[in-house]
Backbone:
């Protein structure tokens, strides 16, 4: 493999893994607070179509990102109303949110099909981008790629070095105990759910405005479900989420390079297209084979409703 091909594949891997990192880290905060939201696919879809529509009408991609974030938060607020206020089942509500969001996005996005946006130029970091092999791949990227890295480090600090992160984890472990010492459990869970929705909306905005600057029905293509799986199989550890996301991106890029290279391979193209999903599942299952590790890191109250006693 020559240097230019390696750089190109590394660049594409980072780009492909970015929306997964953003969405999965948002869902990780949800689940650390004890809330299981399976609606990531729907929130991403709504974020993608809202971001595309606003960017197309305004010409400003950052207004589009803000709109995508707002759409994701609105969907998350609906989910929070159902499961935190009305005490609906979290699994059923999340699945309904995913189906509703995908369908609504397809309906809202009909006028924007076959419309393309102007590509957003990347941000090149001087000097560092001149490093051989990795410079152009890592430091000549879209702003949201750098945001995903900042989000990762910020979340590490928040969860393990801040008082607010400790409170969040306490709410996820034992909401009754957190309530007993005076913490507003429902409010904290609402904030966590809204944060997860915001990140899902940004992930969707990245797809429709930066990754492939166009809107097409089904463009999220299961990434919301992959992000959910990343959180669980990474045993709620941000670093493993990053590794899993880039693994998915790497395998996706590899199969695209193989299909685009013109190599004669006796495999159906559909099988090659499914390789990223298979590889992600196999590797994440392998790194989480120890059930005790999963139980040790899983928030105790995950998916369990809680109503504070007056």
Residues:
């Amino acid at each position: 493999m020559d240097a230019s091909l390696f750089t190109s594949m590394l660049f594409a891997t980072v780009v492909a893994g970015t929306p997964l990192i953003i969405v999965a880290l948002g869902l990780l905060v949800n689940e650390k607070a004890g809330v299981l939201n399976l609606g990531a696919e729907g929130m991403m879809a709504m974020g993608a179509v809202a971001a595309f529509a606003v960017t197309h009408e305004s010409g400003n991609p950052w207004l589009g990102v803000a709109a995508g974030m707002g759409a994701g938060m609105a969907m998350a607020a609906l989910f929070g109303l159902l499961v935190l206020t009305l005490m609906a089942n979290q699994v059923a509500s999340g699945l309904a949110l995913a189906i509703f969001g995908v369908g609504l996005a397809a309906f809202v996005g009909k006028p924007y099909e076959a419309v393309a946006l102007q590509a957003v130029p990347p941000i090149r970091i001087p000097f560092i981008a001149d490093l051989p092999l990795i410079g152009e791949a890592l430091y000549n990227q879209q702003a949201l790629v750098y945001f995903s890295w900042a989000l990762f480090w910020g979340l590490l600090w928040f969860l393990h070095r801040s008082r607010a992160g400790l409170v969040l984890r306490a709410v996820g472990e034992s909401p009754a105990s957190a309530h007993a010492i005076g913490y507003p459990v429902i409010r904290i869970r609402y904030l966590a759910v809204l944060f997860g929705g915001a990140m899902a909306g940004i992930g969707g905005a990245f797809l429709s405005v930066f990754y492939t600057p166009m809107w097409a029905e089904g463009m999220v293509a299961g990434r919301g479900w992959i992000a959910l799986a990343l959180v669980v199989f990474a045993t709620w550890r941000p670093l493993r989420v990053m590794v899993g996301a880039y693994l998915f991106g790497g395998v996706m890029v590899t199969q695209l390079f193989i299909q685009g290279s013109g190599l004669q391979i006796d495999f159906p193209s559909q099988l090659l297209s499914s390789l990223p999903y298979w590889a992600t599942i196999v590797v994440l299952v392998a790194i989480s084979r120890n059930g005790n590790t999963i139980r040790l890191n899983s928030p105790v109250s995950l998916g369990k409703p809680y109503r504070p006693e007056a």
User: Anything to note?
Assistant: The radius of gyration is 20 Å.
